[in-house]
Amino acid sequence: MKELETLKITNSEGKEIEIKVITILKRPDESATFLIYTFDDKAENVDIYASIIKDENDSYVLDSITEKEDWDMIQKAIKELSE
Q: What angle do CA 72, 73, 75 make, to 5 degrees?
């Protein structure tokens, strides 16, 4: 896996953690942005996560993805990235 950009985020308990950005996706109509990321890009089997990025009170928040169409788009992107 290529070298990934690292971001620091604060989790719900207020603890700062590092994530490795795999890619950022947008809906075709650009109404939502999604972050695909991992915590450890050096492991043999990398766990991949995805969240919707929301702008709240002048800061970005990672939130759960709830729409099936969004999950379909993300799963397709992950499959293409893994090939």
A: 65
d(C-alpha 80, C-alpha 58), whole Å: 33
Tell me the CA distances in angstroms from 63 to 5, 16, 35, one per residue in order: 20, 16, 10
Per residue, the 3-state secondary structure of 17-73, as one string, reads: EEEEEEEEEECCCCCCEEEEEECCCCCCCCCCEEEEEEEECCEEEEECCCCHHHHHH
Q: Say whether 7 sits in a helix, a strand or coil.
A: strand
Region 37-57 average pLDDT? 85
Q: What is the pLDDT of residue 2?
A: 57
Q: What is the largest CA-CA distance in the chain?
A: 38
Note whether 48 and 40 are within 8 A (CB).
no
Whether the predicted model's global pTM rises above the 0.85 cut: no
β-bridge pairing 49-56 and 59-63: antiparallel
